[in-house]
Amino acid sequence: MSHKNxxxxxxxxxxxxxxxxxxxLFGLLGAQGCRPETDLVQxxxxxxxxxYPARAKSVIFLYMxxxxxxxxxxxxxxxxxxxxxxxxxxxxxxxxxxxNNIGKILKSxxxxxxxxxSGMWVSDLFPNIAKCVDDLALVRSMVSDFPEHTNANYxxxxxxGIQGRPSMGAWVNYGLGSENQDLPGYVVxxxxxIPPGGMDNFKNGFLPASYQASILRAGDQPLANINPLxxxxxxxxxxxxxxxxxDDSLIGKIGHEDQVAAAINNYELAFRMQSAVPExxxxxxxxxxxxxxxxxxxxxxxxxxxxAQCLLARRLVERxxxxxxLTCPRVAADRWDQHNDLKNGHERNAHAVDQPIAGLLQDxxxxxxxxxxxxxxxxxxxxxxxxxxxxxxxxxxSAFSIWMAGGGVRGGTVYGQTDExxxxxxxKPTTIHDLHATMLHLLGIHHEQLTFRFSGRDIRLTDVAxxxxxxxxx
Amino acid sequence: MPTLINRLVFISFCIxxxxxxxxxxxxxxxxREVDFNFHIRPIxxxxxxxxxxxxxxxxxxxxxxxxxxxxxxLLESGKQAIVPGHWKRSEAIRRIASEEAEVIMPPPDxxxxxxxxxxxxxxxxxxxxxxxxxxxxxxxxxxxxxDPELSIDHFINAQLELQGLEAAPEAxxxxxxxxxxxxxxxxxxxxxxxxHYVNDDAPDAYEQLVDQLLASPDFGERxxxxxxxxxxxxxxxxxxxxxxxxxxxxxxxxxIRAFNQDLPYDQLIREHLAGDLLEQQRYDPETxxxxxxxxxxxxxxxxxxxxxxxxxxEEADRIDNIIDVTTKTFQGxxxxxxxxxxxxxxxxxxxDYYALYGIFESARFTYYPTNSGLQAQARVDSIETHKQAIxxxxxxxxxxxxxxxxxxxxxxxxxPEGPAAGAVRVLADFRKGDHQGWMVRGEAFAAGNxxxxxxxxxxxxxxxxxxxxxxxxxxxxxxxxxxLRSPTFTIDHDYLTARxxxxxxxxxxxIDNFQLIQAPIHGELTQELNSPDMTTIRMNLSMWRGSKAYxxxxxxxxxxxxxxxxxxxxPDAWLEAEYAFLHDSAxxxxxxxxxxxxxxxxxxxxxDQWAKGQTDRETAAALNRELPRANLGPVRGPISGHRDSIRxxxxxxxxxxxxxxxxxxxxxxxxxxxxxxxxxxSEERLPHRYLTAFKELYPNFSEQGSGRLELANAIADPDxxxxxxxxxxRLWHHLFGRGLVETVDNFGLQGKIPTHPALLDHxxxxxxxxxxxxKAMIREIALSDAFRRSTAPSEMSKxxxxxxxxxxxxxxxxxxAEAIRDGILAVSGRLDTSRFGPSVAVHLTPxxxxxxxxxxxxxxxxxxxxxxxxxxxxxxxxxxxxTFDFPVPFSTFGNRNVSNVPAQxxxxxxxxxxxxxxxxxxxxxxxREATFEERLDGIxxxxxxxxxxxxxxxxxxxxxAEQAALYQEVETQERSDSxxxxxxxxxxxxxxxxxxxxxxxxxxxxxFNIKEFIFLL
Lengths: 474, 1017
Hints:
heterodimer; A: alpha/beta; Alkaline Phosphatase, subunit A; disordered N terminus; B: 34 helices; globular
C-alpha cells in the first residue's frame, strides 16, 4: 500500500467513517506508509500532539480492585485507635453505605512507620513498597462519585460512571498512537480477576476498535487466538501465502481500494504478533536476580503470579507499549473488597502485590525507565473508618489514597488531607478527573484538547472537569 | 420554506462546499445565493454557539446568534452583531475579521478560528439580507415540490450531472445478487436463486430477485438486528452481576416478525413507546399472543445496577438512557445533552428533557405473561362464565326471602385510631370489598375483590362458605400472572405493615421505580410469602422517607440472588391481602376490625345481584348464615362439572414465564434537576409535553396519565418533520453504507447536512404515502440504478469525489460481524435456520471472566444458529462479534464502526470456530463424489457467488500439491520422532487427521480469509 502523503489521525478517522479505512496502518500499528514517529505528532482538536513535551512515554496502571483501605495503608489515623469500638454516629455524620451494616469505629490492625528521606508513613501491609517512598507521590485526598463497584470502576477507567465509554488506555492510544509495530498499544495483564463491570472497563467505547485493550493472560495462550492451530508453522504460512496471492489478484481486479488493502496488510501485523507475543511473555531470558527482585520465586503462588505480570509490564514498557494495566490476582479472600475479615483479606492481597510492585519500581529505576514511565497505584474508592459488622470495612468514596511514581512525578510528596478519621477529605479534594488530567498531562496531552466527536458532542476523558495536580509534579 | 429554486441553488452550492472540504487550499467560488441553513448556520454553530447559542447559562455578553432577534438586537455597546444588508456595520464581522487578540472572535484560546472562506460567506449572506430560516430538519419536507413520479435516480443523476461525473455501469449479475442477498437477508445467495437469476433474461429478473429476498424469512433476521443496534438490545443488565432482562429474546422475535410482516413503521413506534396503551391491541395471527405489549420491552433494555445506594440517582440514570435512546432512535436528536443545561447547539431546552422525564417516570415496569393475548383472554372469560354458572346454581339452591333490596349504600367503617393524628396512613383496606383504587395488571386479580366468592373445601370440593372481603388471586387466578398495585405515594412514615396470605408469591415495595431489588440494602422491600393463613409483614422504610413508591402484590415468585433476578409463576401461586398501611410507631401491629354487621335476612334481590357478581358484606354474611339450610344436593353434580371445566381451562392458562414491559402508573410531573443534580430541583414541575421546537404541532398533553400514548402519537405523526426523514435515512444507510445524512443518529446542528436534501425529503414523503412500509422503501432503493452500479470508480470520481458522496459507483463495504459469521455457517453447511426462541448461550473463552459469568459455556458453533440468536449478555459479549465492531449496547448505534484490527485477522486465522467450520465444509465436500475442479467450482460459487477463474484453479492446484507434501513431511517427522523416542512416549490424544480432509479444510479456511469473502464488492 502506498501513500502519497500522511494524513492526520483525525482525518484518518473521518475517512474511516466514510468507508476509506486504513486506520490500522496509521494509528495503532504504525506500519508502512506513515512512519511511526508521525503518530506522535497527531492533530486532535485542531492542536498538535503532544501538546507539550511529554515526561512519560508509558503508563503502568496498578489497579487495586475492590478498594484498598486508606486508613490501613497510606493514611495513618491514630484517633481510630483511641476511639476503637465507639459508635461512629456519635462522632460524625455517617453516610449510607452499600451494605448499610454500620458497626463501631475500627482501628487499623497494622502499625504505621515512617520511611525514607521523605519520612512518609506506610503501614506494615506494604513493607517493600515502603522502601520506595521517595519515588512515590502520595495523594491522600482522592474522592469518587460512586459507592458501588461497577460505576466506580467505569468512572476510574473511563471518566464516566456508565458502561460503554472509552477507557483511559484507549484515549491515550487515540491521542498518541503506539511506538511498537508488532504489539497493540493498550494491554491489560489479567491477573485473574476481571473487575465488576467486566471487559467494558478496558474497551474503546465509541473510539474505533483499534484502541481497545488486548487482554494478556498467563498460560499457554497469552492472547486470544494468538496460537496457530496448524500442526506446523509452514502449513499456516502456506495458507496465508495463498490468501495473500488471492487477495493481491483481487486488488488487481478491483483496483486499489484503501479499505481492502488495509485489511490485507492487517494480516502481516497479525502474523508478526504470533511471534512477538510469545517472545514477550517468555520470561526465561530474565536474570535470576531479576526474578528474585520481583518475587517470581515466592512461596506464595499469588505473589509469583503478580510478579510475573509486573515483569511483563516492564517488558511491555521496553517495547514501547503505551498503556499497561494490571488487574489483581485471585487470592483466596476476594479482592481488596473486605466487607468482613479485613485483617486476613488485606494481608493476603498485600502480600501478593507488595514485593512485585516494589521490584517493578526498583527495576524500572535501575534501567532508567522510571523517568519515562508513569506508575499509578489506585483502587476505585476507599473504605470506611468504622467497621462493617465486626471486622470488615464498607465502601467509602469520600476519601481514599492513591500514589504515582516515575514519569515526571515528584517522589516523596504527600498531597491532600483527610479528617482525623480518614473518612472525608478536608484539604485538596482530588477527583478521578484530576487524576486523569494529570496522567494525560505527563504524557504531554492537554486533557481538554483530547476530544472525540460522539453523539453531537466533543467528548473528553475528563468530561467537563479535571485539573492537573501540579503540586506533585517535578 | 425553501423553494425549488432555493434548493437548486443550495445543491449547487453544496457541490462547491464539498469540493472545498476536500482541500482548503482549493479556493472555491462562493455560491450565488447563500443559504442560511446549509451555509451559515454550520459556521455559527461550530464557532459561536458555545457562548452565543441557545444555552442561557453559558451565554456571553448577552448575545445570542441562534435567533434573528438575538443577532440583530442592539447590544449594550450600542452596536449590532449583524446588520442585515451591511456587513461593514455588523459588529460580528468586525470581531471575526479582527487581528487583535483582545478583539478577535472566537477568542484565541478557543482555538477555533473562522476560515477566510467562512468569513466571506458570512459577509455575502449579510449583504444578501441575512435571511434567517428555521433549522432544516425541523421544517417539514415540502409537499408542494413532491412529485411521486420522480425516481431516486432522478435525484442522484442530477447531482452526478452537475458534478460532471458519469455513473458507473451496472454491476455484474453475480456481484449484484451477492450484494442484494447480503444486504437484504444477511446471508450469501443460495445457489439455485443465483443461477436462476443469472440465466433469466426477462427484463424483470432483477425485480423478481428483489421480491424473493424481501419475502424470505431471512429478511427479518437481518433488519431486526439493525434495529437492535438502535435500542441497545441486550439480554442482561450488566453491572456487577449481569442480571437478566426478562423476556428480552421475545422482543427480538417480535422484531423479526414485525420486519418480516412489514409492520408499518408508525405502528412499530407506537408499540415501542405505548404498546400497552393502544386502543387497538395487535395480536400475532399464528399464536394469538399480544404483540403490542412486547414492544414496550424497549424500555427495559437499559442497564441495571446491583444494589445502588442512591436509587433516585439510579432512576435518573435509567430515564436518561431512555430519553437518549428514544430521541436518537426515532428523531435523530440528542436530547440527553440537555440533562444538565440547555442543548448547546440545538433548540432543545432543559425543560424539554424534564417534560419527557416526567412521562417516562410515570410508567411502571411490569411483568406480562408471555401468553397474553386472545386465547388467554378467551380462557379467562370462559372461567368467568363457569363461575357465573356456579353462582346461579348456588343462588337457586339458597333459601331467600322476598322483600326490598337492601344493598348497603353507605357503609360505615372504623377509621384506624393511632397514637397521634397522621401517624397512620392506610394504603388500602380490602376488607371494604373493592380494589381500593389499586391498579390491576394481568389476570390474577382481574376477578375483583373476593367478597362473597363461593369457597370450596380443598379435600371434598364441597361448598363450605362464602369469602370475606379481601384482595385475592385465589378465585380464578391461582398460578396466573398478575399484579395489584397501589397508587403512587410519598413515603411519609417509618414502617409499612400489610396483612397478607399466599403461596409462592411476593409483596414488593417499588421505590422510585426500582425493581432490581436485592440484598444487602433493599432486600427487605421484597417479601416472599408462603403462608396459607393471614399473616403480618413489615418493612422498615425510615431510610427512604420522602421517596415516591407504590406497593405491589405480585402473584408469583421473584428469584433473587447473586446469580439470578427474574420472575416466574408457579402453578400453585396465589396471594391475598386484607390491608396495608404506613405508620410511625413500631408497636402498631394491625388495623382495627371493621364494624360489626347488622344481621339482615338474605333477600331474593340481593341474591340475584350476588349471582351476577355484585354483592356487599351484609349479603355475604347472610349467605354464610343461610348455607346450612341450602338445598345443594341437586346442584352438586353440575357445580362439580363447572369446577372441573375451570380447572381444565386454568391448566392451559398458566404462563410460568413473563417478559418485562411497562404499564401505566400515576402521572408524575418532574421538576428540572438543576445542572442535572437530582438532589437540587426546581420548584416548578413540568407538564407532560413534546419538544418546544414542535409546540405548535403538539400542545401540552393531558394531565391525566403518563402522556406516553400522546408522545408515541407525536413521534408517529406524519406531520412530525423528523420521523420519516430519520427512518428513510437509516434504510438508505444500511443499503449504501452511508446515510444521505451521514450522522444517522444526529439530525441536529452538530450532525452532517444531507448530501441530497431533496431526495431525502422525497423519500420521507414517499415513505408516509406508502403507509410507512419499510419493505416498499427498501424495494424502491434496491431497484434504483444507483444501487445496482458496479463498485469501480471512474478516474474522474476518484479525483473529484474520493469519498463517493455523489454515488457515482456503489461503495465497497466490509460485512458486519453477524454477516461474516452467518456467511461462514451458510457456506460450511452448518447453518441451522431454525427461527425464534431462547438465545443460544454464549461460548465462553478463558478471556471472558468476571462476576455474573454464566455457569456453563455455550457451544463453540452456537448450534449453527444465526448470530441474531446468540445471547447478548452485556458483560459477556461474544468476542468474534466485538472484534468485528458489534456495538456495546449502551446507547443508540445507527452507524457501526468499521475498524481494521489485527484481532480480526487473528480470529479468521486461529479461532477454533473458524477452523472447525472449515473442516465441516471440507467434510461436506469430500462426502460427495466429484472431481477436483467440480469441488473447487462448488466452493467458489458458495463463497463468492461465481465460478473460479483459470488462474485461481491453478493456484489452488499448486496449493494442494504443496500442502500435501507438507503434511507428508510432518507425518514422516512424527514417525521418526516417535521411533526415536522411548516407546513409553504417549501417543497424541487425538487421531491424526486425514491429510486429504485437512488440506481441503485448509483451503476452505483460506477462502474465509480472503477479502472477497468479508467484503461486498
